[in-house]
Amino acid sequence: METKESIKMYRESLKKYLDDLASRKPAPGGGSAAALAGAIGAALLSKVANFTIGKDKYKAVEQEMAGILNHCEELREDFNSLCSEDARAYKKFSDAVKLPRGRERQKKIEQALKEATAVPLQVCKDAHRAVKLCLPLAQKGNANLITDVGIGAMLLECAFQSALLNVEINLKDIKDDRFILEVREVLEPMEKELVSINQEVSSEVERRKGVK
To answer: Tell me, what DSSP letter sits at residue 60?
Structure first.
C-alpha cells in the first residue's frame, strides 16, 4: 500500500519532470516526452494483464496473459531508459555543433545526428511491438479494464508518431542517403501495421465496453 510519503515523492518527481519539460532547458524535450508516452502506454497494458491473471473467469488465457505481461514490462523498462537516452543524444549533438568549423566538425555532427536518430527510432520500434500486444488484451483481457487497453493503444500510437517526427527532423540534416533510405524502409511498414492494428483494437474496445 502506498504511504503518504511515497505519494508525495511521486508527485514531486512528476512535477520536477514537467517543470523541466516546460522550462528553457534543452532537455528533456519532445523526444523524452514521446518515450514517456510509450512507457505509460506499456504500463497500462501491464495493468490489464495483471488484473486478468488470477481471475477464474480468465483462467483459460492466464498463461498467455503472463507472457504478455513479461513483454510489456520489458518494453516499459526500455521506454524508461529511452527517456534519458534522448537527453544524452541531444547533448552529444550540441557538443558537436560547438566544435570549430571544418571537416572534423561536420563528421562529428553527422555521427551525432545518426545516434540522435537511433533513440526515437527505437521508441518507434518499441511502440510497434507494444501495440501488437494490445489486440489480444482487447480480445481476451479483463473486460473491466477494456478502456485501459484503448488508452494504452492510443498512447503507444502517440509515442510512435511523436518519435517519428524526431526521426524525420534528424534525417533532414543527415547527408548519408543510404542511412536515410534504410531508416525509412524500416519505419514505413511499421507505421502502416501499427495504424491497422489500432483500428482493430478500437473496434474491439467498442465491442467489449458493455461486457462485464
So the answer is: G
Cβ burial, residue 87 (10 Å; 0-12/13-18/19+): middle
Please tell me whether the overall predicted TM-score, pTM, comes out greater than 0.70 for this model.
Answer: yes
CB 129 within 8 A of CB 137: no
Q: Name the DSSP class of 102.
A: S
Give me the domains of the chain, ranges plus CATH numbers. 27-208 (1.20.120.680)
> Nine-digit cell at 121?
527510432
- Whole-Å CA distances, 124 to 17, 72, 94, 119, 165: 22, 15, 23, 9, 10
- What pLDDT is stored for residue 133 in this prediction? 98
Q: What residues contact 23, with CB distance under 8 A and at least 6 apart?
A: none
Instruction: Indicate the helix (H) or strand (E) that contains 101.
Output: none
Q: Which distant-in-sequence residues (6+ apart) come within 8 Å of 106 by Cβ?
A: none
Read off the pLDDT of each residue in 99-109 and give the average, rounded to a whole number.
84
What's the DSSP call for residue 122? H
